[in-house]
Design a protein that fits this description.
Largest sheet: 3 strands, antiparallel
Structural class: mainly beta
Order of helices and strands: EEEEEEEEEEEEH
Number of strands: 12
Strand content: over 45%
Radius of gyration: 30 Å
Length: 319
């Protein structure tokens, strides 16, 4: 037998949180006539473990496109950042216990309201968040790799089993750039760019975790005749971080991004919030089934002598 260790899910805690605020337009932007659409993104910035409690802090990024005229001839973008902080009661949590945190947006509502100047220069935002926390505990196993019987043969079945120990979850912030050649030469103005992350696969090798983060780039623009056009592109962004384990999982959140058009290319600068979960995994061959063949006996070999007991002469043992 041998001793194996692994982490398994323990406590699961959920909390629904509502974040609301009235946000004032930048003084350089005109009043709004109508919101055309947008998005909200949530990222976790910090997690702290106290005695029996967990503090989760993060930001909500709000992006909205609006028009200042009824004809929709002129459009503008609104970008705001709303911080949030929540305390979760976790009676058994202590420093060093592995955990996993997730904050998802359940719903969001944005509407333009009248500001102090008497115009629609305020944005009322209400976001409902689902904060989830899962803690893990360490368990130990005593597993068999070999077995025998003194008198009857055994038929055994063995399998390769992977044991993973979660080392922890850490947050990395990184800024990456990506350039996309624009296929249209007839564009006169880009109205808005929205990124839709598609996920990331992670691999660990030589102490580094690498991943290829994919995002759908949605471009809304006007052509030279004033017609609105829409195009989609795929951005592949390579990522690399040091790792203490031999396996990892990457969850990428888009925090903020900027874009500009230079020489027929769309240049993207993206601030990514990376939640990296690290594991140490080992593979062992263990016995999963053993059957005793009682109808058969083991043939004794004349060349083998089995000694039992402790009162055996040293010379006899050596022979």
């Amino acid at each position: 037998t041998f001793e194996a260790k692994s982490t398994i899910p323990d406590e699961w805690i959920e909390k629904i949180v509502t974040v609301s605020d009235s946000l004032e337009f930048d003084h350089t932007l005109p009043p709004a006539h109508m919101l055309l659409g947008g998005e909200c993104r949530s990222v976790v910035r910090e997690c702290k473990v106290l005695s029996g409690k967990m503090i989760v802090k993060g930001n909500i990024y709000v992006h909205q496109l609006y028009t200042d005229t009824s004809e929709g001839e002129s459009t503008h973008c609104l970008d705001f950042c709303l911080p949030y902080s929540q305390i979760l009661d976790v009676p058994d949590v202590t420093e060093g216990i592995p955990y996993m945190v997730s904050v998802q947006i359940i719903s969001d509502t944005e509407r333009c309201v009248v500001g102090p100047d008497g115009n629609n220069t305020m944005l009322d935002v209400t976001v409902k968040l689902l904060v989830q926390l899962r803690t893990y505990k360490m368990v130990e196993y005593a597993l068999a790799q070999d077995a025998y019987h003194c008198h009857h043969p055994l038929s055994m079945h063995q399998e390769e089993v992977e044991f993973c120990t979660m080392l922890g979850e850490r947050i990395e912030d990184t800024v990456v750039t990506h350039t996309i050649p624009l296929v249209s030469e007839r564009w006169s103005e880009i109205l808005d760019v929205i990124l839709q992350p598609q996920g990331c696969q992670a691999n660990v090798r030589d102490g580094c975790v690498t991943g290829l983060w994919k995002s759908l780039v949605c471009v809304l623009a006007k052509d030279v005749s004033g017609e609105v056009v829409y195009n989609e592109y795929v951005a592949d962004v390579p990522l690399m971080f040091p790792s203490e384990g031999n396996s990892a999982c990457l969850k990428i959140h888009l925090a903020d991004y900027k874009y500009r058009v230079v020489d027929g290319r769309l240049e993207l600068q993206m601030a990514l919030n990376v939640m990296m979960r690290e594991y140490h995994c080992t593979t062992q061959s263990i016995i999963t089934e053993a059957k005793l063949q009682k109808n058969a006996t083991i043939k004794e070999s004349k060349n083998i002598v089995v000694f039992t007991g402790d009162l055996i002469d040293k010379d006899v043992k050596e022979k």
